[in-house]
Amino acid sequence: MVKLLMRADTHVSFTVPAEDPVAKCTFSQVLAALSVSLGSMVVGFSSAYTSPALVSMMNQNITSFEVTEQSGSWVGGIMPLAGLAGGIIGGPLIEYLGRKNTILATATPFIVSWLLIANASHVAMVLVGRALSGFSVGVASLSLPVYLGETVQPEVRGTLGLLPTAFGNIGILLCFVAGKYMDWSQLAFLGSALPIPFLLLMFLIPETPRWYVSRGRDDRARKALQWLRGKKADVDPELKGIIKSHQDAERHASKSAMLDLLKKSNLKPLMISLGLMFFQQLSGINAVIFYTVQIFRDAGSTIDENLCTIIVGVVNFIATFIATMLIDRLGRKMLLYISDVAMIITLMTLGGFFYVKANGHDVSHVGWLPLASFVIFVLGFSLGFGPIPWLMMGEILPGKIRGSAASVATAFNWSCTFVVTKTFQDIISSIGSAGAFWMFGSVCVVGLVFVIAYVPETQGKSLEDIERKMMGRVRRMSSVANIKPLSFNM
């Protein structure tokens, strides 16, 4: 044992890369991740806009047109619906236009949508702007993880793959803080400026090598891979692996994209991705964030509502950077476990708090509990179930169906988002706040079982290795086992 320790001490240069995977990463890959992450910041800003903007938008002293409660609800509600449409259309787009060009194509609609909202003279202009923004969000949320999954090397795919989520949270926090000092029109003008640096940087990075290979442009794939891995890197082994994986997929492909999705070998990773999206949204995160102010009012909290929102935004932002540092060290599954357990404990605690309060007991001595639970809940969510389903969508979906399958997963995610946010008030009315939180907590318990039983660990593995391993498992599993992910997810 002593000899081994001494030997390890004499090879310091060998142990550093193992402990610090980012050290292996080239500047080109960081630039690529940063470029698409700035697009994610626009997505985060767009998602958070209604929370601070609706207050001033419904103020007749500030706004020249009337915004009723009903139309105000649609200003927020139309975005996930448009995001659903963007998710459906984004799949074919990333296959035909390419990953990079699809991401680029969202920048102009983002700018136009914000200018429409900023110069609105009628609520219809705001709704059209929000719909266009939501559509772009749907396309971007699909294409960003696919681009990063196909360009970043396995050792740092987790770290750099979480950058879009981190920058998305920067966008949310920026919107919350700016919304405290700006009205809805000024906030929209700020939103119109955010896509510009993202647009400029996207011109500097290449298309993904895997998309070039799928189009038979192997020379362009080599150039893109060389740019990403560095001039001195030997990219031949990796390029041969990509080409071989594509050829294998072509041999087993059918003429119909839908039939490809329904094949046993493809159905399993698709169901895992759908399951992660389902449990991400059914944790109640969007309902909790959307109704933060109301929940704190119901809890009788004396803390300023705007301050609570900013605290939640800061925690969300910090937690994602913690996840970025840990994901290539602890792995995806470990962070999902930590995330799920934290959400279960806090949701059950919140349910207990509201149950005791509803039964007439004095809870003033634990008035800090809702905020503490919220902070830990958001921290837990942002460590795992927030970013990892999107990251793994770009990892586990087979290359041949990555566009169409990612389209299905993204559309499913936005559908769940819409259902949860729109039904949250009805759920509270029927089973109370305590019942709502206990329901979400129970879903998280089932989600934990799902992660243990079905979600693979992808840390440090190439996309081709992940695809071969998952397809190999499907061939060895019984037909009954193959049905389980589908029936469980439904």
Q: What is the gyration radius calculated from CA atoms?
A: 23 Å
SSE order, as H and E?
Answer: HHHHHHHHHHHHHHHHHHHHHHHHH
> Quick one: overall form?
globular
Instruction: Tell me the structural class.
Output: mainly alpha
What is the tally of helical segments?
25
Bin the strand percentage.
under 5%
Which range best describes the helical content: under 10%, 10-25%, 25-40%, 40-55%, 55-70% or over 70%?
over 70%
Please report the distance between the alpha carbons of the first and last residues. Answer: 52 Å
Please characterize this protein's 3D structure:
The protein contains 25 helices and no strands. It is mainly α.
Which structural traits does this protein have?
490 residues; mainly alpha; globular
Topology of helices and strands:
Elements: H1 2-9, H2 12-19, H3 27-48, H4 50-57, H5 69-96, H6 99-118, H7 123-151, H8 157-161, H9 163-179, H10 184-193, H11 195-202, H12 209-214, H13 218-229, H14 236-252, H15 257-261, H16 264-281, H17 285-290, H18 292-299, H19 305-330, H20 332-358, H21 369-383, H22 388-396, H23 402-454, H24 463-476, H25 479-489
